[in-house]
Amino acid sequence: xxxxxxxxxxxxxxxxxxxxxxxxxxxxxxxxxxxxxxxxxxxxxxxxxxxxxxxxxxxxxxxxxxxxxxxxxxxxxxxxxxxxxxxxxxxxxxxxxxxxxxxxxxxxxxxxxxxxxxxxxxxxxxxxxxxxxxxxxxxxxxxxxxxxxxxxxxxxxxxxxxxxxxxxxxxxxxxxxxxxxxxxxxxxxxxxxxxxxxxxxxxxxxxxxxxxxxxxxxxxxxxxxxxxxxxxxxxxxxxxxxxxxxxxxxxxxxxxxxxxxxxxxxxxxxxxxxxxxxxxxxxxxxxxxxxxxxxxxxxxxxxxxxxxxxxxxxxxxxxxxxxxxxxxxxxxxxxxxxxxxxxxxxxxxxxxxxxxxxxxxxxxxxxxxxxxxxxxxxxxxxxx
Length: 384
What we know:
Elements lengths: L2 E6 L4 H12 L4 E8 L3 H10 L4 E4 L5 H8 L5 E4 L1 H9 L4 E4 L7 H8 L4 E4 L2 H18 L2 E4 L2 H10 L7 E8 L9 H5 L3 H4 L9 H9 L1 H13 L7 E5 L5 E7 L4 E5 L5 H9 L13 H4 L14 H11 L3 H17 L7 H12 L8 H19 L3
Parallel strand pairs: 1-2, 1-5, 2-3, 3-4, 5-6, 6-7, 8-9
Antiparallel strand pairs: 8-10, 10-11
């Protein structure tokens, strides 16, 4: 049976991995929509290869080029934020939501409102609008599947078990490229060093988040929404090998862990085939060759991001939305060479201390909070 799929963020790493899996089972899928931020050339190539119904660039300046490259193909071309939402609103059996940052929130919500399955790879959307998004999932009868390797691992370890029996959930963190660096050395870290993740191939923003440990903190907030076992039962351990992706401990002392290669095709395949399984070309684990798996407690002195995120989750309301917006501004500023590496966490904490709005009740509230938090973050940059 042929299934339909839309991929929001088709030219990024998640999109590429998803399309690689579809490419290997081409007869089983019909592509509805593919979107990209501004890479018109790659988007047009993929849209032609997979005979997409529509291709959308978020940056309207690239729309003329996209139209030229799709001329004569029969594939519709569109651009801009409203076009992204329209593409996400098209009926599809599964929508992969992989647009980075808060920019992916509106399209993700549009997909949820179709009442189908959404494979969520945009953690910032759930972090910023968790309560609003989950209310929409319940209201429209949608199914939300986690693509992040850690949350997908938890999802698999919980399968068939009553969450009431969970004693704890442990998210594993690689620790990023700076996990063994001293505090003095961290202060001098460069963007080029921060984006060189030792285990995963990822985009610049998420790579910096991994280096600061904000990525894991955001995942903690996301897990708090996805798996409501209580914040006190969510833990983080540093696991440099990135083989154990997460663990669930039950009240009887049993701990279930999901192991796999550092390849996003594994959790993506889990979502695409759910509740079944599908083949991938990922090499099987060779535990004997690995030799050992190590774990250690995060150092929140050198990497305060996990503490800041836990505090935001505990505060609830709009705190996580403010945190996410401030972090996006801080990471972009670091990548542009405007602030130092250790300034990222400090800047996020300063914005959270200055701006504490009421909890959002609707999507529009989330966007307003996000914009105001960014304004506060940019104001701090003027004095950096």
